[in-house]
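dumping the sequnces here before i forget
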Amino acid sequence: MDKHYDPGRIEAAVQRRWEDTAVFRATEDPGREKFYCLSMFPYPSGKLHMGHVRNYTIGDVITRYQRMQGRNVLQPMGWDAFGLPAENAAMDNGVPPSTWTRENIAYMKQQLKSLGFALDWERELATCDPDYYKWNQWLFLRMLEKGIAYKTTQVVNWDPVDQTVLANEQVIDGRGWRTGAPVEKREIPGYYLGITRYAEELLADLDNLPGWPERVRTMQANWIGKSFGVRFAFPCEIDGREEKLWVFTTRADTIMGVTFCAVAAEHPLAERAARDNPELAAFVEECKQGTVMEADLATLEKKGMPTGIFVTHPLSGEQIEVWVANYVLMAYGEGAVMAVPAHDERDFAFAKDQGLAIKQVIAIPGKDFSTDAWRDWYADKESGVCVHSGKYDGLTYDEATDAIAADLEALGLGEKQVQWRLRDWGVSRQRYWGCPIPIIHCQACGDVPVPDEQLPVVLPDDCVPDGSGNPLNKREDFVNVDCPRCGQPARRETDTMDTFVDSSWYFARYCCPDNNDVMVDERVDYWMPVDQYIGGIEHAILHLLYSRFWTKVMRDEGLLKCGEPFQRLLTQGMVLNEIFYRHPQGGRISYYNPADVEIKTDAKGQRSGVLLKEDGEPVQSGGIGTMSKSKNNGVDPQSLIERYGADTARFFMMFASHPEQTLEWSDTGVEGAYRFLKRLWAFCVDNENIIKNYHTANMGQGLAWKDAPDLIKKLRHEIHTLLSQANFDFDKYQFNTVASACMKMLNVLERNPETIKGVSVTPADYGWKLLEESLSLLLRVLSTISPHISDTLWQELGYGEDILAAPWPEPDATALVRDEIELVVQVNGKLRGKVTVPADAAKEEIESEALANENVGRFVSGREIKKIIVVPKRLVNIVVA
RNA sequence: GCCGGAGUGGCGGAAUUGGUAGACGCGCCAGACUCAAAAUCUGGUUCAGGCAACUGAGUGUGGGUUCAAGUCCCUCCUCCGGCACCA
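..and the predicted 3d for all of it:
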C-alpha cells in the first residue's frame, strides 16, 4: 500500500477498472427488483458547474446504496442539448450551435467520468439528435390527430427594432436586451398542447405521490389551481346586437354587490369601445406595451378607463359600466371580471382610485363594515351572510352560491363551473436551435402534418443565427417543400418546439435509446417509472408538470403502462457562495471571485477585513448568493477535482448540508473533507498488517462477541449505534449526517489505539476483530459517497475483490443493547443532573435515583413535589411548587 | 403582486421528530514536533459571571399552548426559489 493518499492515481485506476469491466451497464432482468435512479440531465453550457456536481453526486450516492441493497440499478445520463444559449454563443463566436453544443458535450462528458459516477454511458442520448427528436415530432402528430395539439394565437414579446420575438429572459426592464427598444406584446399564431384536458388527473394524482416533497405537490396543486365558481353573463347591446359579457367568479354570493365590470385590454369589448374613443384606444395600446411576464404584470400600478359601454346586471337589472383594467388577465377565465369593491382587495383599490361605488353585501356578525378592514371579510367564507341582496339576504356562502347559480341557470345566463388556473402549453418557438414542428403550410390544403414516413424533419445544423429572427426562414432548402397532400409547392413550418418538450420524456427513451423503429419498446415496462428523480427545486413546477402530462399522453397512446413518471422526487438546494465587489464612486461595480480574496480574522476567529490578494486593498462583501457568472462567485469543479480528487469533492458536497437545503461553498470545508480522507488512508496504512493478517489467518474466527471484554463491547456499541444512525439517515436522504457518521466511526477507532491493536484487551484478537469489523462497516457506508478510496482500501486490505459486490451493512441488534443508561434529570424543565440506571429499571427506582442526585437535591429540598415525569430512556422531570 | 421555502455559536450545519441545544466539520486560541515555516498530533472553544463546582441568558421578532418548545399555534420582520419563451 502507498504510504500517502494519492487521489489522482487511485481514482484513475478505479475508474479504468469500472470502465473495462462495464460494471455500470444495466440490463433488464425480470427476476430482479429494478431501481431506476435518474438525475435531471444537464444543458451542455460548456463545463460542469457546482450545481451539477451536487446533483449527480446525490444521484450517485442513492444509486450505489440501492445497488448494495441488491437491486438491479439503472443510472443513465444525457444532454438537454437544444436551447437559447447555443444561439447566443453562435452570435458571439460565429460558430453554428451544433458545433458548440457537440464540443461542450464532449468536454462535460469527460468531466462527469472523472467524478466517478456509476453511469451506464451506453444509454447516452442528446435531444438534438434526429434519432431522439424524431419522436417528439411523431408524438406531436399523434396529439394533433387527437386534437390534444391545436393551433391558435399566442401573445409574445416583440422587439420592434430587431423585428423578432424575445424570450422573457431577453427582456430587461421592459426593453429588448440587444436593441434597448421598449418591448411590445404581439399576437402571432402558434401550436398549443392541451394540458388542461389532463388538469383533473394531474391534480388528483398528486395524492398518489407520497415520495414527492409536500412543498412541490402544494406548488403544483396551486399552479393547476382548481376553483369552483359560477360562470355567468351580463347581457348588453353592442351596435344594435344582443351580446353577452361572460365572467367567472368564485364569489357568486357577492353578485348583488357588483358596481362595475372590468375587462382585459385584449378583450373584444375593449377593442370595440376603443374603435370610436381615441383616448381609450391609446390606453389599450399602452396596456399592450411591456412584457408578457406575469410577475411584471402583477406589480403594475392598477390602471383603468371606462369604455362607455353598459351591461345589464342579470339579477338586479341595474346598468353596470364596463371598464378596461390592466390587472385583468386575458389568459385567465373569460378575460373579464365582475367587480365587487366591498369584498375584493383589487376591486376595492381600483374603486377607491376611480371613485366608484362600494356596496356592502356580506355581513359578518360582530364586525362593523365601516371600520373593519375589508380584507377580513373577503377571506372569511364561513361566517358571512348576505345583506342588501334582496331575496338572498340571510343566506350563507354555500346557500347563496346555490341559489344564485340556480337563478342564473333558469335565465339561461349562467351555471356552476370549475375553473382552472392552468393554461394550455404553448410550444411554438420562433427560434432555430430546437426540434422542428412537423407541419407544412400549403396554400390549397392549409396546415398539413408531415407524414410519419417522412420523419424526422431534420434541422439543418449549419446555421449561424445573427439575432434578427429565425435563420431557418432564410434556408430555402429547408423551407421549400412539396405539399404531402396535393404535391404543389408549399412552405415548411420554421417554428421549433419549446425545449421543455425534449425534457418531458427523455427518461423513457433511456430505456431503449438504440431502437430507431419505435418511440419506446417493451424494455420501458421493465424500467419505468423512475424510482428516484433528483434535480433542482427551480424545476418544481414547469418541467415536472410537463413531464407528468407527457407521460399520461404516452400512456393513453399505449406506449407506457404507468401514468406518473417519477415515483420519488428529491429537489436539491442551490449552491451558494459569497459575493465580493467594489463600487468606486461614479464608477462601475466590479465583482471579484472569492478565490482572489483574502479574509482576515481577529484572535477570536471573527472576520476583521476582506482584501483583494492582488493589491491588498479592501473589497466589500455582498452577502451570499447562488453561484453565477454575473456575480463572479462561481467555483470551477475542474480545479477542485484536479487539486483534491473526486472523492473529496463528493464528500464535501454531501457533508456540507442536507441535499434539499442550499449549500454554501467553503474552501476550508473542502480542506476538512480532504483531511478526513487522508486520515482514513493513514489509519489504514498504520493498521494494514493487522487487518491483512486477520483476513489471511482468520484470527478472530472462533471468538464470539457475547464473550468479549466490556471495553470491546462498549466500543462496538458505539460503532453499531453510528451505523444504525447512518442507516436511519440514509432513508431520509440525509447524507450530511451519514458523512459525519463515517467521521465519527474513524474518531472512535483513532481514539482507542490500545484497544484495536490488541494491547489493552485479552485475548488481543478481540481488538483486531473489532478493528476489522468497524472498518468493513465504515468503508461500505463511505463507498456511496467517496467510492474510489473505499474501493481501493477494500481491496488493499483484503476485504474482497470489489466493494460494489459487497452487501449493505446492517447493525448487529445485540450490539445496540446496553445494560445501563444515562438519564437526564430536570427540575421544572431545567437540567440539574444526570443519573445512570439499569436499562430495565422500574419507574420508582429511577425516581429515587434522581432525587438522590446531589445537585438535584439543592433545587428540590424545602419545596413541594407536585409530580415527577419519567420519560423512558430519556429523562426525569421533577415538578416542584 | 401571487404561490412555495428558510432563519440555530465567528462559519457550514446537528438535535433520535415535543424531551441534555450546538453532534460532526471549518475557523480561532493554547500546547507538542521543528532552527523556522508548512503539514501533522493533543487540549480548549455559544455568550456573561466564577479558580472551580456551578449559575444566569440563549435557536429572526412579539405573544400563546405544555411538566417540557429550535420543534406545535398566532403576529410581524428578513432572505431565497417559481410565476408559463432561461434551462
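The first strand of chain A starts at residue 34 and ends at 39.
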